[in-house]
Amino acid sequence: MRQVRRVRRRRLPAEGRDDAPTGPASMTMDGIGDPWALAGAAIGVIAAALGVVGLWIVRAQAARLAERETAIEDLRRRVDALTALQTRTANRLQRFETEQGQLAERVGHVESGGGRTLDDAIDSARRGASVGTLIDTFGLSRGEASLIARLHGRTGD
């Protein structure tokens, strides 16, 4: 019979012990280490890079925001100045309109006395109306009636 020789296998230090890790976690990839640890480290590096990029973006946005806030504040000052100018201009316009209305009223009063015009007073003076009649009929002052009677009338009062 043939004799079977037993070949003794060489044991690695972790083999054969009860505390030796088994399964995929114990395998190494060409001596690099645990693949899950490697994946975790890669994710950590990517997260750190994203954090740096994120921080850079936040700082850039903060700088843009500060510039825009400065521009907005400048625009607010300009709007306030324009509003004050517009208010002053509106007040002046109101005064001019009031004065123009008063002047138009005075011109109308001069042109017509009781609804009649200066032309009517001149026609009456040409027909021989007296200064007193011009005053009573057209609401003219004594000086106005006297002037119209002298310039356009036949006789003065």
Would you mind describing this structure in some detail?
With 157 residues, this protein is mostly helical. It folds into 2 domains: 68 residues; 44 residues. The protein contains 4 helices and 2 strands, in the order H-E-E-H-H-H. A two-stranded antiparallel ribbon has the order 1-2. A hairpin with a 2-residue loop joins strand 1 and strand 2. Helix 2 runs antiparallel to helix 3, helix 2 packs across helix 4 and helix 3 packs across helix 4. The protein is rod-shaped, with a radius of gyration of 55 Å. 8% of the residues are buried. The mean pLDDT is 81.
Oligomer state equals: single chain
Low-confidence stretches: none
Structural class determined from secondary elements: mainly alpha
Q: Report the mean per-residue pLDDT as an integer.
A: 81
Write the element-wise H/E pattern from the N-terminal end onward.
HEEHHH
Number of helices: 4
Please state how the strands of the largest beta sheet are arranged side by side: 1-2
Number of strands: 2
Instruction: Please outline the major beta sheet.
Output: 2 strands, antiparallel
Number of separate structural domains: 2
Q: Tell me, briefly, the overall form.
A: rod-shaped
What is the straight-line distance between the termini?
178 Å
Fraction of residues in β-strands: under 5%
Rg (CA only) = 55 Å
